[in-house]
UniProtKB/TrEMBL annotation:
SUPFAM superfamilies: P-loop containing nucleoside triphosphate hydrolases, Restriction endonuclease-like. Residues 779-1119 form the PD-(D/E)XK endonuclease-like domain. This is ATP-dependent helicase/deoxyribonuclease subunit B. HAMAP family: AddB_type1 (MF_01452). Residues 5-295 form the ATP-dependent helicase/deoxyribonuclease subunit B N-terminal domain. Despite having conserved helicase domains, this subunit does not have helicase activity. It is an enzyme of class 3 (hydrolase). One of its GO terms (biological process) is double-strand break repair via homologous recombination. It comes from the Bacteria.
Amino acid sequence: MSIRFIYGRAGIGKSTWCINSIAENIKKDDENKLILIVPEQYTFNTENRILKSIGESALLRTQVLSFKKMAHEVFEECGGRVKEIIKESGRNMLIHKVLNEKIESLEYFRKISREQGFYEIVSDVISEFKKYNVEVDSLRNIEESIQESDLYNKIRELSIIYEAFNEEMNEGYIDGDDELTLLGKKLLENDIYTNSEVWIDEFSTFTPQQLEIIRLLARRCKRVNITLCMDNRDNSNGNQDITDVFNTIKNTENKILKIMKENNISYDKPINLNMINVNEGYNRFKNSPELEHIEKYFFTYPFNSFNGKCENVKLYKANNIYDEIERVAKSITALIRSGKYRYKDISVVCRNIDDYEKITSVIFKDYEIPYFLDKKLELLNNPLIILITSAFEILFKDWSYESVFKYLKTGLTGIENSYIDILENFVLEYGVKGYKWTVKEIISESWFNNNEELSEEKIFISEIMDEVRRPLLVFHNKIKGKHKVSHICKAIYEFLIDIHAFERINEWIEKFDEIGLEDKVKEYSQVEESVIDILDQAVDVMGDKDLDSYDFFKILNSGFNNEEIGVIPVALDQVNIGDVARIKGRDVKALYIVGVNDGILPASKKEEGILSDNDRNILSDIGIELASNTRNKVFEEQFLLYTVLTISSDFLMISYPMADFEGKSLRPSIVISRIKKILPKLVEESDLYDLSSYKDKLNKVISPIPTFNELILAMRKNCDEENVEEYWREVYKWYKDSPEYENKVKNIFKGLDYSNLKNHVNKNNLRELYANEDGKLMFSVSRLEKYAECPFSYFVQYGLKAKNRKIYEFTPPDLGSFVHDILDLFTNRVKKEGILWSELNNERCKDIVSNLIDIRLSEQTNSILNSSKRFKYLSQRFKRVISKSVTVMAEQIGKGEFEVFKTEFDFGNYKTGEAVMLNLQDDEKVYLQGRIDRIDTLDLDGQTYIRIIDYKTGAKKFDLNELYYGLQMQLLVYLDAIIKNSKYILEKQVVPGAVLYFKVDDPIIKSKKEMTTEEVETEVLEELKLKGLVLKDAKVVKAMDRDIEGYSLVIPAAFKKDGDFKSTSDVVTEEEFTLLREYVNRKMISLCEDMLCGDIKIEPTKQANRSYCEYCDFSSICQFDTSIKDNKYKIVGKKSRTEIWDNIRSDVKGSKEDN
């Protein structure tokens, strides 16, 4: 009846000693049981080691147990556990229920108690209380001893929750955290392990529950042997060094010694393997002196440097995680090729497995490396769970787009993917949600134009929608309102049966099995059972409780959130991938530690949780021991680091990425700098300095997929006349002769000569694409400007008729149309009612605009502006913006003599004005049409002047430089159209007065000083001043702003004191207006001729730092990339005003001479 410690540093043979000791006991032929206790995750590997070392005879007397497995064995042999153990999901549901019922008793936690994550936090605290033998009465007894108010409130309310949880648990289940407590009671009542010998290995700490089991075993068993990873016990009475890497183990040792002293348990002479094995020559690192040096000196201060060659330790600096894992895959392949390793001898570990699992799986499959991912799968990400949760969300979120298509895209609804795509386009275009899904007539005729094609589409889409909604409406009708939990769980099950979800899961399992995806087979084989178990536990835990469906959904979701699916290796010879905390207990010859970055390994300080470090210290002082505080966990992390650095026997590679998936930079861990110091001859490799490529010229020829990628690079180098290793010719021949890769090799050559440039298409084909139904080429100015921006983008949009997916949203073009309509209605109202523009003040404008918008929205009940509160708010904002704009517009008109002649004037439709005709070569004719927002006129000195106004909702300014390059011709074309059609429109000849942009806006005026109302109004006028070109005539200018003094608040013009125009004025003569019209005309002819000749080159314009590609919807089609040969921007240089005018005059003169 004793305890014996077995001391030994990492790699010294503690586990081997335990197995050898068991073998010696087996030879004694007595009947006593031999028990080896290890952590749960190490039992399988430990059993294999015993079988290899001792043989099958070991199975007759030896048991490999964890503390939990020991509990199960005792309960099975002695009885004692009649209730089923509640799963983590059921546990969380129960806590959820308790918190809902006790909400009125809580004050401190009331606000956060309904937060989703709070249930998990409480679950962790309850689990901690149980593992550390903290009873409800213990918490109640210490309440009065707590002086700190926050901690007092925490403990008081946690005890309320803890007590209620235990009461609920006692009704039907047993908590898994109570198993060791029950085991302790059974060991007291039975002699099951009397005279047995026990070995406890691979533990660094024990919970109070586990320490109690050790105490009871020591009282009954012949002897309990406990391995401690540390040097021999220090018998000095000095203070223990908290920074010692073995500090955690020494704390564990002290706790056990205290138990021995308090219970009169004998202390057998310990065994110091550090001395025995050194003398006998046994050492894990006997073949790798570098690893032995790391074990001895990594945590030693000061340290000794290793001066030998570093052949068994590698250090790799990766560009990113992909580069890092690919380097690991290449290294593993090299180890296997050496013949010294098998896959099962190799492990890959990291501290952040979630960041590495997907990329590692993909790369290892490409490199044909068999692997086992030692991580439980989260049920929450399985399609069946997503199906259930989204079915609830559709109800709670009123058939939102996101919830409906999350449901449909699980693949478990039985609706074909192509139908889902059609439905998705329709739902996005028409904003289908809410009542539109549930009305009797699914699709209203008002959504469509009345033609046969859309009528057929209506019928088809309505059939798909009905198939989607039918089972969901049945399910929702069953769960709406309050129901017993058992009723809701039954409704969920019936819904899954109704849509045949389980049948489809089984079909998937068969397909996964056929194509060899064994990990998927394991996962999906368990998911149905897990869902049923969770529903059953929900019924058992709170089946008779009435709950609102939303409250139940939160509880169910917490259950799903905590459910994990365990997986086991499907083969023995696999690379193990996992977290550093789970690596112990394996025979690892080669280890790869990835992700060794600052804050990750070792892990940075974690959040303290409900109970802070200070709380834990206070509780410890009054006799309540709990888990380590964050400070102690930092030192536990150091021991974990020591463990992982010393687990491999032959080879170690440490790597770290310099950037994460998003490209954010990462810093190397302190581990990297420490390794470099103790191994000064260790060379840090990277993609730029890869030692393996120098030592092994064939290191890039690995498995088909990655080698094929390398072949592509080699062929590119060969095309660029760079040196390529001769063996790539043989590699190329292998792929060329392979049926699987034959076509892919051909595609490489196509790719090497790839060009995204298609400069011309057939002229006749183009004319068919661009002509209207009458065979005429009718263009708008904006279309020609689009062609000038990028010929290819124009061709895709207007030739191929490519369109973006229509979305039910209010886009900038929608806003532009809405604003133009309201401004047109406003102008017509003013004209119809005979209101003088000078009489329109701010309030009058507000009233008229508000009334016009209200009428418009009442007439268009299906308008998006009526669809939601958000859009109704936007319509109110539009009222404010348009009101401010028309107030300024009224003041601008009122300040001058020009009168509004026409608004929204169309030309080119042969009703209000002829099209502008362009005569091209080969007698081809192009007709321009358009709509002019406003035409103002002025009769002065026997002349009629016209002013063209174009409304803009964006920040549009007139730019003569852009006009020169054909990017801003609209105003001049409008002017030309009116002048040419003036005898039909105004019944007289006209003279250009101005071409101007008016910005529709309600600007925010910023100032560093306080401003008066008049000053603010002046700034508003300045912000919304008309922009463009004005006739260089003082009378005409004053007719636009009679109050002009110096500079104008209406137009871009200003006078000097001598009456001449300032140089900052945007004024031109009548002759210059004519020149601009003629230049724009020639420019449009040039653009049309290029367009109709088939010029569709990918050549987007770029001016300053702005490229038109930034706003193009078709960049994914052209794949413009300046790194591709001949992909170049058309640079729009910034020319001076004088240079532009000189060029325009020259071009116009030259074209006249040519004619």
